[in-house]
Amino acid sequence: MKFYRSKFFHLSILVVLIILFSTSCVPMKKIKYLQSEVKKGDAIQTTFEHKKSEDFKIQPGDNLYIRVNNALSTTENIFSLDQESRSSNYYNDVGIYLNSYRVSDSGYIDFPFVGKVFLKDHTLEQAQELLQSIVDDYLKGTTVIVRLAIFKVTMLGEFNRPGEYSVYESKFNIFDAIAQAGDLTTFAKRNKIYLVRQTESGSKVVHLDLNDIGILESEYYTIMPNDIIYAQPVKGKNFAFREFPYSLIFTTISTTLLLINFFKTN
Hints:
By secondary structure, the chain is an alpha+beta fold. It contains six helices and twelve strands. Strand 10 (188-198) and strand 11 (203-208) form a beta hairpin.
């Protein structure tokens, strides 16, 4: 009877240890992206149409890169900031910032040779069309280019390289942003990513599920300037493991059995 009781005790300890370590691991299901398969009829959907997100609108505090191109290089200068030196520093973040047009609190830019131009709540395309019409009154055969000088995305939380990143592409999606930050860590809660987006009235918080392939059709799939992406950790991160700790389990079991035998013989 004593023998069976001892065997049951040992077995109970093993079961408890295995359950403890198993529940401390992050399941692969929570790590994989785009898991769900969306079906239409009998066929698996492999093509996804991105919902058009709201166009970015110029707001006070934005910095715009505006360039007027003309066949005669001398005519460009009357619509440009003081850009006597086009050194390599002009093309870095600081140079772009210093040579950009800042939108005032009232929504205007101070455009050389013209004066104040109201651009608040204009899309970049609308701003380009407006400035093109203004320049055409002075010069013919010109091309106006308008871009957002500083396109920043902030990545916070469970990223391998969290921080603020500059974007130099017009089309930039949520996975591009994640790649910039070195991917999510194993402990990131991929089914509940927070996206903070600036709006005309303030900030809007959206929850994104990266485990679901339906994210490809979300209107928030495309990243906008000044977006903040926060990845929160899974519960019990401090007690979780990236991979199943086989060696730790075997070591713990062996040590436990040795201690049990030691106390039984003494």
